[in-house]
Input
Amino acid sequence: MIEKINITADFILNKIPFQPEIALILGTGLNSVAEMMQISVVLDYADVPNMPISTAPSHQGRFVFGKLGDKKVVIMQGRLHYYEGYSMQDITFPIRVLKAIGVKKLIITNAAGSLREHLQPGDLVLIKDHLNLTGDNPLIGKNNEKLGERFPSMHEPYSKKMIEFSQKIAEKHNFKLETGVYAGLTGPSLETLAECKMLQILGADLVGMSTVPEAIVAIHSQMEVLGISVVTNLSNIFHSNPHTQEEIRANAIKARHNMEILITNLMKKI
Output
């Protein structure tokens, strides 16, 4: 694992003019954030040694390096999902590489279903905690102390400081920004009505198929993490119509303006 990480990190470092401080993972429908950057280098995953390829719809599958304001940033346009057939170690390999090239802060975004009626499509929600319901964990197996400790604390996986910064930005710019608990499932099948009711009982406000493995490995790698969900659909607790990928992407686009305001202003704070 260490050798693979180093090979990939060295390849990337030889292609870019700086070491990024901050990384953003863009979820479904959120590619416009990359358009705000002063772009220096774009690397397709397919051209990067050892890098798995994203196959999810609308995920472009590339690293974009540049500046947002005065911050040196790398954006992942496209992530890897467990449902694509990759292992937990595969889908979190990019997080290991981000750490190796200098990233200290990670902003994870995703498209999520709402389990609470007050969280409506187009809303942004800060993840305050998560439920790992994937039945797996990317840290299973022999631990390498060079990567992180054997039993990392998940007491507070999402940075309170970055959550507070985000809330102040939303208040200043007058847009809705809630907090919630995100339930991470494997997918790719969407949740049944019974599963949605169970998730509500467990305390989840949002449900999706990503983020949790990435956050676990980022914490293991001593990164500071912020999670932001875009509500793209209400769960079938509230209605019986099936969701389409087109609907989910359209609702993600509704949140684009507020997401751009949030990310732009966060760069001035963190």
Q: What stands out?
A: The chain has nine helices and nine strands. The chain has one domain: 2-266.
